[in-house]
Write a structure and sequence with these properties.
The chain is α/β, with parallel strands linked by helices. It folds into 2 domains: about 240 residues, Alkaline Phosphatase, subunit A, CATH 3.40.720; about 120 residues, Gyrase A, domain 2 (2-Layer Sandwich). The chain contains 12 helices and 16 strands. A 6-stranded mixed sheet has the order 6-5-4-7-1-8, with helices on one face. Strands 12-13-15-14 form a 4-stranded antiparallel sheet. The termini are far apart.
Length: about 400
């Protein structure tokens, strides 16, 4: 069986391959290449699950990066158990064909309890006193100390948030991606897996933060080209065939669409007040939108208003389409985790999860990097609040306080 390394260059599109990416350009000239129809929604968890199962969300169940759990009446984003993927994975099928087959899964998502032979995934530690320690989870467990000894601590703050993709005290702009690439090389040297799945996220940050046409993206292209080029040389020297792919492309947007604010104004969202701040009580709401980039899964707890909800959403500026139950089968989204309605944004628009009408009453997590507490994806986490004077100095002070054991947001 041939050995393969799959390099997932997140956000890479054909339009990016050119003078700033000499290695990728040369590769495209020599190798077979093809365009894919992106997953729907075109987001990390869905795209990866499509690739790794060969099935659509209606079968594997990953309808977005997160969804509304109807049994718990809660929204959950970025969960990590691979048992959430409800279809056989490629490594399961290849192991059944050849017991000698092995797989390494380096930072691809749903990377806990996956059945892969070696796994590494970001996973902070949360002591009972409320502190948060950046770390990784590995399988086997002894892989974690070995990788940290060889590569140092994973630069978690550069993996997501305002320090991702920019030079900061936490590391170089591409620090997280270089660490992941180094871990993939370490695994290859030590274990020589048959299939090495390598996640390379660097392009994803500034393509979202600045837009694909921003001149600063040229530096990001040069950086990812160097990382990919180094991996290509490394794997080729060891007889490993590389495959490059991307999860999705990124287009410039200029219009946020606040569906939950519209629902609230119509009395469809129930709000509970906690410590003077407003949180959505989704289980008691008539309708709620679970936003994820340019797709929103709309939960309609009151079936009598479903047609009206669809009408209101379709009339909202920035919305391209609204799909109902009959459409979901055609889209490959006919799954119990999907919304009752599914809205797709126009190319220049994106959906927010925001439900508050008064900024003073926004939840405390709204202006934090808090991917698990927010009931929707929030790209604004890539930015520092310009209204905060000396924001970077304040962050450094907070980091020092956390190291000393203080608790704060």
């Amino acid at each position: 069986m041939n050995r393969i390394a799959v390099l997932n260059v997140v956000g890479l599109s054909d339009r990016h391959i050119g003078p700033h990416t000499p290695r990728l350009f040369a590769l495209r000239q020599r190798w077979h290449h093809a365009s894919i129809d992106p997953a729907l929604p075109a987001v990390t968890c869905t795209a990866q699950s499509d690739y790794l199962t060969g099935r659509r969300p209606s079968e594997h169940g990953i309808v977005a990066n997160g969804w509304y759990d109807r049994s718990l009446s809660e929204v959950h984003f970025w969960k990590q158990s691979n048992h959430l993927v409800q279809a056989p994975k490629i490594w399961d099928e290849l192991k059944a064909r050849d017991p000698r087959f092995t797989c390494a899964k380096m930072f691809w998502w749903y990377n806990m309890y996956s059945g892969a032979d070696w796994s590494v995934t970001p996973r902070p530690m949360y002591p009972a006193d409320g502190r948060k320690f950046f770390d990784v989870y590995t399988w086997p467990y002894d892989l974690r100390p070995a990788l940290k000894k060889a590569l140092g601590d994973f630069p978690f703050a550069t993996f997501w948030g305002p320090a991702a993709g920019v030079k900061s005290p936490q590391g170089a702009p591409d620090a997280a991606t270089r660490w992941i690439a180094g871990s993939a090389k370490w695994i290859e040297k030590k274990h020589s897996p048959t299939l090495n799945l390598v996640y390379l996220p660097h392009l994803d940050y500034n393509l979202q933060r600045l837009g694909p046409q921003h001149p600063a993206v040229a530096d990001d292209l040069r950086r990812i080209d160097a990382i990919v080029g180094d991996l290509l040389d490394f794997f080729a020297a060891r007889g490993v065939r590389p495959i490059l792919l991307s999860e999705y492309g990124i287009t410039p947007v200029s219009r946020p669409v606040h569906l939950n604010r519209i629902f609230r104004e119509r009395g469809w969202i129930t709000i509970k007040e906690e410590l003077g701040l407003e949180l959505p009580d989704i289980g008691n709401s008539k309708a709620f939108a679970v936003a994820d980039h340019q797709v929103a899964h709309i939960v309609v707890n009151d079936p009598s208003i479903e047609d009206k909800v669809r009408e209101v959403v379709l009339e909202t500026p920035g919305v391209a389409e609204v799909y109902g139950p009959a459409d979901k089968h055609i889209l490959g989204l006919d799954h119990s985790r999907s919304g009752d309605l599914i809205a797709v944004a126009q190319e220049d628009s994106w959906f927010t999860y925001y439900h508050w009408l008064d900024e003073a009453k926004a939840p405390d997590f709204a202006r934090c990097v808090d991917i698990h507490r927010k009931p929707g994806y929030d790209p604004v986490e890539l930015f520092l609040d310009p209204a905060i004077p000396s924001a970077k100095l304040k962050i450094l002070g907070r980091l020092l306080q956390k190291k000393l054991g203080f608790r704060m947001l």
